[in-house]
Amino acid sequence: MAGKDRKKELARQRYERQQQRRAQEAAKARRLKIIGAVAAVAVAVAGAAAFMVFKEDESTAAGPQCVYKDDTQGSVAKDVGRPPGKPAHPGIVQATVKTNQGDVEMQLYGDKAPCTVNSFAFLAQKNYYDKTECHRLTSGGLSVLQCGDPTASGGGSPGYRFANENTGGATYTEGTLAMAHSKAPDSNGSQFFMVYKDSQLPPDYTVFGKITKGLDVLKKIAKGGSEPAGDGKPKKKVEIQDVTIAGK
């Protein structure tokens, strides 16, 4: 091979080696870039997942939030404000309704009906129920004593209303404590009823507790009858003197 041709061949080989090295370096750079991108995506996904779990845990820890809306249907019997949105009694709560006919002790279902128990306890602590008459006594298929209206008319309201709770498959057996409401949806307020004998009702009334002591008091009141008979004002005057919530 002539000297000039030899130089050309060597130059060509150097060029090819350079091109090969450059191709290898470029391929390596692309691999590193891809690995870095995948790692970044993995970190981002992990971070997002951690954020979502944190937010979910945070939301779960916060518990239910209650909504108490303006009551535009009933007349405001006594305005003591509104309960806090976060239930203050998330578990089982003991309460006592003291009346001139005797005491009725009850267990409130803060776990099953948190917003109802929250409202009931709030009104009790604000003395909303003090010196109020139980205005309705029924007998027959419906055997309840209804209380909680300072006007004793059945139309009184605390100025707010809230939605039903714990009604799925609800039954109203002897000793049940439930909320009374109007025909309007989500119209719970301050009025409640105590069942002194198994009663037939559709599952439309929030069950928020049960009577643990004092059924004899209710049955004594029921035995006295109502005016008019069957569904009316108790003949034996029933006045709530105080409602106490254990530990509060």
UniProtKB/TrEMBL annotation:
Reaction it catalyzes: [protein]-peptidylproline (omega=180) = [protein]-peptidylproline (omega=0)
UniProt domain PPIase cyclophilin-type: residue ranges: 102-245
Presence of keyword Transmembrane: yes
Residue spans crossing the bilayer: 34-54
InterPro entries reported for this sequence: Cyclophilin-like_dom_sf, Cyclophilin-type_PPIase_dom, Cyclophilin_A-like
UniProt GO molecular function: peptidyl-prolyl cis-trans isomerase activity
Record keyword Transmembrane helix present: yes
Composition bias type Basic and acidic residues, residue spans: 230-240
Its biological purpose: PPIases accelerate the folding of proteins. It catalyzes the cis-trans isomerization of proline imidic peptide bonds in oligopeptides.
Protein name: Peptidyl-prolyl cis-trans isomerase
